[in-house]
Amino acid sequence: MQRLFLSFAALSGFLSVCLGAFAAHGLKYHIAPEFPSVWQTGAQYQMSHALALLAVGLLYQFRASKALKLSGLAFILGSFLFSGSLYALALGAPKALGVITPLGGLSFLVGWAALVVHALRR
Question: Average pLDDT by consecutive 10-residue portion of the chain (122 residues)?
Fold first, then answer.
């Protein structure tokens, strides 16, 4: 699990920087005016949760727990659902895809709650 969390954290951080730069330097001229901020929100949440996942991966080496594992998996799922759906919406996906975004947010909340449980059980 630790390898998965650290690898995904690094990959997610890398992609967040790439996708943010792509939006800033090229995408904004090819999508509707309201969507660059949607894209940017996806990139910001992806980066912040990449860092959270990095912390989970580092903590995992000292004391693995079911709560910590749930936290890491929830952060990964949240990144796909939340940021992924925002990227897709900005690129013109059907607005119905927007129902997935809150599920990603819920996954992030589960990840943070599980991290609290891990911390309190120590």
Answer: 96 94 76 79 96 97 95 98 95 91 98 97 82
Among residues 75, 69, 86, the alpha carbon closest in space to that of 121 is found at 69
pTM score: 0.93
1 vs 15: CA distance, rounded Å: 21
Q: Can you tell me the distance from the alpha carbon of 66 to that of 59, in angstroms, rounded to the nearest whole number?
A: 12
Residue 99: C-alpha distances to residues 55, 76, 83, 84 (Å): 29, 18, 13, 12
Is the distance from CB of 47 to CB of 16 less than 8 angstroms? yes
Cβ-based neighbour number of residue 82 at 10 Å: 24
Torsion of CA 7, 9, 15, 17, to 10 degrees: -130
